[in-house]
Fold this protein.
Amino acid sequence: MVIPDIPSNESYLIASIKEIILTSRKNIVRSVNTEMLSAYWNIGKLIVEDEQKNQERAQYGDETLKHISKRLKAELGNSFSISNLQFMRRLFLAYPNQQTL
């Protein structure tokens, strides 16, 4: 496909529009990543709070994570494997203050 010559003012307009679109796409990706990180941190927090039940340290049964994973995968998709839930838990434990993310 051959694109006909475009007058310079149209060329500037097209370049400006492309820049807006490309910048917006980058911002959308960044925003989605930030929201997903926040969601994963909050999921990890809920898991830790549930496992500790006001104790300083606690063991979390594999059966509980299996059950949570099975239910979430059935309702929300495969992103909630046991290993992903463990990573979310570790994320919260590594960064207990969400602002440090």
The helical segments are 8-52, 62-76, 82-94.
